[in-house]
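During the no-cost extension, the postdoctoral fellow (Dr. R.K.) reprocessed legacy sequence entries with the updated structure-token encoder. One reprocessed record is reproduced below for audit purposes.
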Amino acid sequence: MLRSNMTISGLSIDLGNASTVGITGNNVTNVHITNCRIVNTTGFAILLTSCSNITIDNCFISNVGFGVYAQGGSSAIKVNSNQFLNINGINTSSLGHAVQFNAVNGGGSQINNNRIENIAGVALHPHDIINLYQCNGLQGDSIQVIGNWIRGGQLTLWPDAGSGAAGILIADVSGSYQVCRNNILVNPGYAGIQCIGTGYGIKIDHNQIFSTKTAINSNAINILDNNQITVSYNKTNWTNHNGINALLSDGETQYYLGSPASPTPINFNTNSWGAAISASILPTAIISMK
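Re-encoded structure tokens follow.
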């Protein structure tokens, strides 16, 4: 259990595939979790509730139901420069994300420069790899999702047929002042990057998204029910579950704006749909920690 004003460094936690949480924090502030290893749990690796000014960096998290979960009005949460290998999912309510912010509000929050890989046939039920659910940054101090490398994601619609998951999902249900930038995604799941809620001050730019055909994948970028969003300078090369890789009249398969269509995002004409990119946008090995 975390306490305020503490640093945890160099800790190795192997939970033996129990449902135990690796590290828990409730109503604590000013905590640094660094250079730690958390492996083999069917539950959460790190669970934060109503916490503030928490930094998690240079940690290795592997074979877990869920990576880092910050909830309950937490603020100023930084999850930077970590490595995640194989997210397995927990259940129909908790699903399985490498990192999720749930109702994280205010300035100073980041999910930056992480490397995340789900190996097909090893990772059981990864869902959204990174998720911002009903989170709000500040004008001039957006919640950052920047510079992450993601390879591998959802291959089946678990837990039900309506559970399509994305590599990165921002403004989930709602949200404001979020930036999703310079991320590289290869075969990340049902979708690449999604913004599927009412929100404003949202920016999705300079990302690269590639996918081969899988049993369920749909679109590289999905924008639904969002009126104030900038989508610019992204590169996509996406083949959907029907084997289609083309820019059709409704954007399929490179992007989807809904039906009826959401308003065209700001600077939408700057994107490169069907760009000459391949799986090699990520190096062969992205996970170096053990």
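The mean pLDDT is 95. The domain at 6-281 is CATH 2.160.20 (Pectate Lyase C-like). The remaining legacy entries will be reprocessed before the final report is submitted.
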